[in-house]
Amino acid sequence: xxxxxxxxxxxxxxxxxxxxxxxxxxxxxxxxxxxxxxxxxxxxxxxxxxxxxxxxxxxxxxxxxxxxxxxxxxxxxxxxxxxxxxxxxxxxxxxxxxxxxxxxxxxxxxxxxxxxxxxxxxxxxxxxxxxxxxxxxxxxxxxxxxxxxxxxxxxxxxxxxxxxxxxxxxxxxxxxxxxxxxxxxxxxxxxxxxxxxxxxxxxxxxxxxxxxxxxxxxxxxxxxxxxxxxxxxxxxxxxxxxxxxxxxxxxxxxxxxxxxxxxxxxxxxxxxxxxxxxxxxxxxxxxxxxxxxxxxxxxxxxxxxxxxxxxxxxxxxxxxxxxxxxxxxxxxxxxxxxxxxxxxxxxxxxxxxxxxxxxxxxxxxxxxxxxxxxxxxxxxxxxxxxxxxxxxxxxxxxxxxxxxxxxxxxxxxxxxxxxxxxxxxxxxxxxxxxxxxxxxxxxxxxxxxxxxxxxxxxxxxxxxxxxxxxxxxxxxxxxxxxxxxxxxxxxxxxxxxxxxxxxxxxxxxxxxxxxxxxxxxxxxxxxxxx
Length: 530
Fold this sequence. Notes:
Blueprint: H1 2-6, H2 15-49, H3 53-56, H4 59-96, E1 100-101, E2 106-107, H5 115-121, H6 126-142, H7 159-164, H8 182-187, H9 192-222, E3 237-240, E4 245-246, E5 251-258, E6 269-272, E7 275-276, E8 279-280, E9 283-289, E10 294-306, E11 312-324, E12 329-333, E13 338-340, E14 345-351, E15 359-364, E16 367-370, E17 376-380, E18 389-397, E19 403-414, E20 420-422, E21 429-431, H10 433-437, E22 443-445, E23 456-465, E24 472-477, H11 489-497, E25 503-512, E26 518-528
Helix pairs in contact: 2-4, 2-9, 4-5, 4-6, 4-9, 6-9
């Protein structure tokens, strides 16, 4: 990141780069918020442990947890102080860059290369002050973790813990920063938007350092790492079902759980339509056989005792619905309502509630081959079937084991449309002799067709008429080429001797396409005009 910022020294900062800074900054802020929530939850867990009857009844354990809670709270207090300092540095940079634009809620001059330099590197040299505070914070924060297993082992220095913290103050040397000056390396000639992103990065590092220290303090207090969160502030009953549309005979399955649940909870009761369900790892599974038709509704209730509120019983209700329908199927043509000879015609089967492997088909006047994707096929039709109909019959096995006939589907069969000839991307008219002489071949083009259909010219006739002459020179070619080793020498010679006013007619042009039919596709006539 620092290399990218350094590269901006001698250039105008593009809006794309500034927008990239903004995107990264938003991501950093989201991460910081998540870390705040985690740290707050850990502190709350500390306090909850002091309410645990087992810890309350053990004076030694109670004092140990209380003492370590004080250390954890001190870590949070230290973080708040350094975070406020960093926010103040951000404010100074933003003010120097014109403040916040109320319309965009962004820095007014976010590309300002002077703001961060003036505040952090030159003038008040806030960068030196910021580095000193961060270094002090890192050392004092790490020192909150006892070096031994008891709080009495606090020594005012914990180098091992310091190495574990994400705060890093190294700066790479450069031609303009040989001495690896931290302020210069981070903020010199950095656009205001980039400087704020760097500041938020350090704020995020500070919060992650707080988290690392609090987690280590927890481990010292309880002899193990914090494995789970015990504080739940909001609850909701969740019902999840992978199948809400069923056919007769199929089974409806729903997973029902209490949001923010605890897997070790043994006081949770869940009922569906009055029936008590078995709860495993905080989740109850409900299964019922689909009967009848139309929408079906299940009523769900859950209750539990909340140990955080004097074991008060709390209840929640919710509803879930699913639909039982009749089996139906369709075949969708992925291109258009017709099959073309000589190309792969993609189609897709669909049948409500029928797994892909349970669909079968038969066909007349066409052949189906499996393609990539669920229920996707390619259809080919034989040469000579134009004007006929392709027929596909579809059936499928239902959940109860019976087979349902989904009917017969008929589609028209057509030849691929005729292409048209082109030379030099033209269909005739005036052309310069020099342009015509460099054309390699006659090409057959097919526009506005939904399939990949390539045509190749196989033969044509050439008629050459000189200006003010009725004499005609006529030649025939058995290839598509006009010039080069594959062209007829006589045709190449005609192109070479063409002059202004001469006319050249390319007629009786024939081409072959994917359907292997040779067809006449017209002519291309030119007058040499240059």
